[in-house]
């Protein structure tokens, strides 16, 4: 997948950030929000789009937008870089093929050891009981 084409479909919006910064925080919009419409993307194929909708269902709103934001630094440019990296990692992770789990067989020795331990524990508990005199 070409990430440069994917970046061209992304929209950025700078908003005022909350948190520390003193008087400066009220003047400058340093928080960056990234908007990506998964449903209308021309870079993604139908299979990729469906996979992203399934894997990122809790992050995509009902209009089909994936919204990410970053206000980690006081620099708008750095926040834009961070949110873009986060977006590309999220897309890459969402498109990964899941490998099917191969169930492993439990070795006979492990089963035998477990049963032996159970037997020993049972024997301990029966030895603690008072004897039947009748």
Number of strands: 3
Task: Provide the β-strand percentage band.
Answer: 5-15%
Q: Specify the number of helices.
A: 4
Unreliable runs: none
Q: Can you tell me the CATH class of the domain at 3-94?
A: Alpha Beta
Summing up helix and strand content along with how strands pair, one would put the structural category as alpha+beta
* Reported CATH architecture of the domain at 3-94: 2-Layer Sandwich
- The H/E string reads HEEHEHH
Strand order of the main beta sheet, please? Answer: 1-2-3
Helical content stands at 40-55%
Rg result: 28 Å
Shape: elongated
How does this structure look, described?
It is a single chain. By secondary structure, the chain is an alpha+beta fold. The chain has a domain at 3-94: Double Stranded RNA Binding Domain (2-Layer Sandwich). The termini are far apart. It is built from four helices and three strands; from the N terminus they run H-E-E-H-E-H-H. It is elongated, with a radius of gyration of 28 Å. The mean pLDDT is 89. Strands 1-2-3 form a three-stranded antiparallel sheet, covered by helices on one side.
């Amino acid at each position: 997948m070409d990430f440069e084409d994917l970046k061209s479909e992304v929209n950025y919006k700078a908003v005022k950030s909350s948190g520390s910064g003193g008087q400066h925080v009220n003047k400058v919009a340093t928080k960056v929000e990234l908007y990506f419409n998964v449903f209308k993307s021309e870079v993604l194929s139908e299979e990729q789009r469906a996979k992203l909708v399934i894997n990122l269902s809790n992050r995509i709103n009902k209009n089909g937008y994936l919204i990410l934001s970053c206000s980690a630094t006081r620099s708008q440019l750095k926040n834009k870089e961070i949110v873009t990296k986060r977006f590309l990692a999220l897309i890459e992770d969402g498109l990964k093929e899941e490998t099917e789990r191969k169930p492993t067989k439990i070795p006979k020795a492990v089963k035998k050891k477990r049963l032996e331990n159970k037997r020993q524990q049972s024997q301990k508990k029966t030895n603690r009981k008072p004897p039947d005199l009748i």
